[in-house]
Amino acid sequence: MSEMTSTQVTTASGRGTPARRPLPDAPFLAAARGETPSRVPVWFMRQAGRSLPEYRELRAGTPMLAACTDPGMLAEITLQPVRRHGVDAAILFSDIVVPLRAAGVDVDIVAGTGPVVANPVRSDADVANLPLLDPDQVSPVADGIRLLLGELADTPLIGFAGAPFTLASYLVEGGPSRNHERTKALMHAAPATWHALLDRLATVALTFLNVQVAAGVDAVQLFDSWAGALSEAEYREFVLPHSAKVLGGLADAGVPRIHFGVGTAELLPAMRSAGADVVGVDWRLPLDRAAARLRAAAPEAAEPVVQGNLDPAVLFAGSSVVAEQARRVAAEGRAAGGHVFNLGHGVLPDTDPDVLTRLVEVVHEQPVR
Amino acid sequence: MSEMTSTQVTTASGRGTPARRPLPDAPFLAAARGETPSRVPVWFMRQAGRSLPEYRELRAGTPMLAACTDPGMLAEITLQPVRRHGVDAAILFSDIVVPLRAAGVDVDIVAGTGPVVANPVRSDADVANLPLLDPDQVSPVADGIRLLLGELADTPLIGFAGAPFTLASYLVEGGPSRNHERTKALMHAAPATWHALLDRLATVALTFLNVQVAAGVDAVQLFDSWAGALSEAEYREFVLPHSAKVLGGLADAGVPRIHFGVGTAELLPAMRSAGADVVGVDWRLPLDRAAARLRAAAPEAAEPVVQGNLDPAVLFAGSSVVAEQARRVAAEGRAAGGHVFNLGHGVLPDTDPDVLTRLVEVVHEQPVR
Q1: What span, in angstroms and rounded, lies between the C-alpha atoms of A271 and A273?
Q2: Per the similarity annotation, which family is this (chains A, B) (predicted)?
Q3: Could you tell me which of A160, A159, A158, A4 has the C-alpha nearest to residue A80?
């Protein structure tokens, strides 16, 4: 694959919806569909970005959200880990606040802090004023996806969006929060306001994912990073209907839908029932136990497919530990009956990229069944 | 109860181990022993401290760890929430790093950050140099406990210590950590070093708790705040033996032993098996489901007693929501078969103290069985 520069590519951003690439042999797509892949597919959440020196070089001087909406830069950053590690899927370089910012919300990503929202959303009036997303507002992302399709050969491209709850948490708190107290207070004290907010955010997320699907992504992942802060009862009442609107809205899109959150061992069946084809699992619950939990909760449903779940902190423990833990995860994935190898959360910033490359090799040596 | 000042009390700190107070009717102790209490007992983790204006006034100008080792001040801070809220137990005002600092570790609590360790512990030599605790080094805490026994009337006093894993996390990382990558790397890459470190920390925690028990506390809680960052397999291999050394070392002390961590729904049976009489549960898992999980894991054991688990964030949602959620927790506690009412984590700093006072009233109106 050739290296693209920002300049080269912003001028090359054409329009028009390409047909989705036929990728019948892609291991990632086979596994995500519940079929038997030719090898254990592996990709890493946050593989595109901060752990790679070539990323830091390319991004130097460019703010995060500008990089996410520069077609050439987002395409190049998305490609970098595919070239370097030989992973089985590319994940679109983006951020969960990209559609909010594109719609006109005053949000920025502050280095070392995370997303910061200038005017927190806490009242009915705030919710009514929250702009919806016009597809044209994220056309640079669609342009980037079209560039990627020409470069990725037979590697599938995963699109993504932040789920309504996690987006709401940033909007209500005004930024990252450890305890989500304002978010939970709004949810419980003003449920009508809460549901109106989440419905709006579901519309935004669905619009963004529809743009990505129309541009040609081969799968989507809905990230509900903070869902694990909730009890199952709260999740089912206050969150699930809205995530179901997003995932259900993509039921006929023809792409596998992955649904992931951290610390969600108790929520996995609910998160699946929102409309997920693949359920992401963090490192706290072995994949075979996660699959058993999903099966028990929906015995009539298709066999569950799980994704995960090597602890990203283990990547700091040296190559023999990484290989040993990767073999364990793969064995648990086989026992689960279907499996996409991933980390249990995103790649940590200080991760040595060579460790990820060797991990891909180890995963590819594991038996599929 | 009279208000004590620091000056008054440091001079009053006598020695000699008092007999433990007989408190046959204390609802907290009855519930903790698995008996039927006269009312639903309630106390709050972090009830002593930052949410109270009288605390902030008293603490003004005194560093955190100095306050924890001033007998009069720690006694007064411990008493404040008992006077104000009418809770069924006092929890010793302390911090998990108090025994480390007392033993000579260069650790301080930095406002807005948390514990910061000057020389992180990462090698065999670091572990060998880690000082053990001499009971005399925490005599101010024992003095404070003796002062408290004279003031608390029939309210039980809960002592506490940080569990080996959570202490290790601060020592290895050098301070608070979101992902615990150095801690987990050490655990997996150098298990002998890891176990030596945790064994030493277990000795420190047990020494500290033995001092508290000898001084007259009526129960103890072992806080393993970060245990929820681990998978069950990691917990059982790398942590449980050491927490079991602490709790097992108190088996004959004649006081109920509470064991608590956040995000530990998958770890509850393991945490009980470490030697807990009462298992603390955060807000993510209903108490009746927690008890069912404990029962299923140890069908031959005594009926489990659980503690928790109102989400501290709910205290920001207004009085009717708080009352409704408190009634739900109490009902789940009854369904669990035995229950100490608490929050699912510590009181958040911005909590309105009046909300806590009303919550105690609501809990005391709930039926016991």
Answers
A1: 5
A2: Belongs to the uroporphyrinogen decarboxylase family.
A3: A4
List the single residue in A with minimal CA-CA distance to B346.
A179
Cα R_g (chain A), whole angstroms: 19
Whether residue B332 is predicted with pLDDT greater than 60 in this model: the reply is: yes
Give the Cβ contact number of residue B249 at 10 Å.
18
Give yes or no for B350 touching A (CB within 8 A).
yes
B122–A contact, CB cutoff 8 A: no
User: Is the four-CA dihedral A302, A332, A346, B227 of positive or negative sign?
Assistant: positive
**A355-366 tens-digit pLDDT:** 999 999 999 999
Is residue B76, in this structure, part of any structural domain at all?
Answer: yes
A266 closest CB neighbour out of B179, B265, B316: B265
Does B285 map to a domain?
Answer: no
Q: State the catalytic residues of A.
A: 46, 50, 59, 95, 170
DSSP letter at A284? T
Q: Is residue B353 part of a domain?
A: no
Task: Give the pLDDT score at B112.
Answer: 85
Per-residue pLDDT tens digits for A215-241: 999 999 999 999 999 999 999 999 999
Question: A314 and B265: CB-CB below 8 Å?
Answer: no
3-state secondary structure of A259: strand
ipTM tops 0.90: yes
A284 marked as binding residue? no
Among the listed residues A184, A212, A202, A210, the one whose alpha carbon sits nearest the alpha carbon of residue A240: A202
The 3-state DSSP composition of chain A as helix, strand, coil percent (nearest 5) reads: 50, 10, 40
- Restricting to A residues 298-327, those with a Cβ less than 8 Å away from any Cβ of B are 311-314, 316-318, 321, 325
Residues of B in contact with A345 (CB under 8 A): 179
- Across the interface, of A181, A266, A348, the residue whose CB is closest to B313 is A181
> Could you tell me if B360 lies within 8 Å of chain A, comparing CB atoms?
no
The pLDDT assigned to A7 comes to 33
Interface test with A, best of B180, B188, B262, B285 (most A CBs within 10 A): B188
Cβ of B316 within 8 Å of Cβ of A283? The answer is: no
Give the separation between CA B257 and CA B271, rounded to whole angstroms. 11
> Cβ of A114 under 8 Å from any chain B Cβ?
no
Residue B333 has pLDDT above 90, yes or no: yes
Domain at B197, CATH number? 3.20.20.210
- The residue segments making up the domain with residue A201 are 21-277+295-305
Whether residue B47 lies inside any domain: the answer is yes
Check the annotation: does B47 bind a ligand. yes
Number of domains in chain B: 1
pLDDT of res. A5: 39
Query: What pTM value is reported for the model?
Result: 0.94
pLDDT per position as a tens digit, A328-339: 999 999 999 989
A24-80 pLDDT per residue, tens: 899 999 999 999 999 999 999 999 998 999 999 999 999 999 999 999 999 999 999
Average pLDDT of the segment spanning A97-118: 95
- Output the six-digit token pair for B50: 């930052």
